[in-house]
Amino acid sequence: MTEYILDGLKAFAVVMFGMNVGVILTWVDRRQGAMMQDRVGPERAGVYLPKRMAQGALLGPAIGTAAIVFYLAWAGRDLEGAAYTGRAMLFSQLAILFTWLTFLVIAGRIRRRGVKNPFDAFIATLGDPRRFFYAGFGAHLACFFVAGLFRGTPLAPTLKQIGYGGGAGLLAGAIVLGGAYAAYRIRHERVRLRLAGLLHPAADGLKTLLKEDFIPPNSDRLLHSIAPFISFFPALVVLAVVPFGDTLCFGTENGELQLTQLLETVPREGVCTAGAVNLQVIDLNVGVLYFFAMAGTGIVGAALAGWASDNKYSLFGGVRAASQMVSYEVTLGLTIIGAVMIYGTLQVDDMVRWQAENAWGIFVQPFAFFLFFAAAVAESKRIPFDLPEGESELVAGYFTEYAGMKFAMFFFSEYIAVVSASALMTALFLGGWSVPFLDRDGFHVVLGDNVIWEVALSHGSVIVLGVLAFVLKVFFLCWLQITIRWTLPRFRYDQLMQLGWRKLLPASLINILATGLVILLVQGGSAQLVSGLRTAGQVTDLVTVVLIIAAVGSLFALFLKPASHRQGLAATSAQFASLRGGTRSARMTP
Question: Over 88-103, what HEC string results?
């Protein structure tokens, strides 16, 4: 019975993840891609709350969160070994994060509105608010350095106790301080809460629910009604074979799984079997084939919608959608053959484990990753590959004759397809839940035979880090696809088909040939070659860490860069153009 409940919970979690990320992508795409120009703009809509209610909404959750932190600290006071070390490191890092982030926000507010009380004056004397970020970043690094430096020394237990108790107390204090300061700063009897454009998705959803379900008189009513479900269902269920985390290991009693007994630590090698819970809805030995089999049925939904609508524009859109999806399905299937040859399995979770032990797929199959990414974007039928619904040619394409929730299912399935493709790319090429140098028992920074740095973590901490890494990778790929949707113009249909059949398809065949030759060379190589490849895999982990740190640092540097404004007054467009550096062409003459 417990297994069935767990399977249901995993399926529910995966469905909610796919649908909620799809909703977020829809909102981001609508708000950033085409800003609504009406009287209630994305930044104008808001609600008013009474002063006491607003203060309670700020201070209440902060006190509740602090109470939870103290409870977790009290409940884990008897932990030992890696579990205690991981909990101490978690409390310490979160305490540092919330402390500098709280003071950074407060300092920014003080700088914008001025000093109002002695506490504001004290914060203002510390100088630029960016100093809090720099100090916090240095504190994060110092915490890791101290943990590695004194690991295994007589001083280590004392440092763990300081990190555990002091970290929990500092974390709770920072949360309460932020909430109390925000509540204290409320002066007016009514507080306006801006909704950041969230009224528009709510209005769209309500409008969709209340719209009439129109069916053309001469259409095939049955096929017209089931086509949206055929299109929506496969985009969601393909997530069932994508693992979003490593195996959870629970204790057992009389052969029964004990969900309250999560193992504190697990061995670095191997996978638990007795109390194992895979963070995957279904673990098939042909998981990749299941993905393509289910994803391919989405073609039927688009084709049926176009044919059953009794509309020439819908028919053209359905034909375009079917031919486009079939064309790029071929490239998708051929692209992953090289990865399957390397991994030696069709099970998605085993592919992730191979990458965790060796190197991410983007390093061993870089050409395949870019081919797969291009084909996946075309498969989702989003710009610049949205020819089946090109409004300048086909009104709305294959769902021109759909309204209400049926239209929403077609529209929403495309964004869920973006999430599904991103999840599969994460599992095949970005290591899935794996984190560089993170094993099942903690971090082990190793280059060759030299151990540079190690820290033990509890089993629960490792699982949480893996799930978080998987989610962040999926978010990154979704963001990348949405960015392409904002950037590139729509292709012509002949360009779309030529790209698929004359560019991507031959390139995927060449990738298969090159992969086979490399595998033959490696299999016939010496032990030194195998050792060199193992070291190269460790170097790729190091390169990944450096790239992530550089990207995060660049992002923070962009956010922390002082804003510079240039003001210029121009009475005419000619003066404005001259002020901006002139025009690119010579002045027209009669």
Answer: HHHHHHHHHHHHHHHH
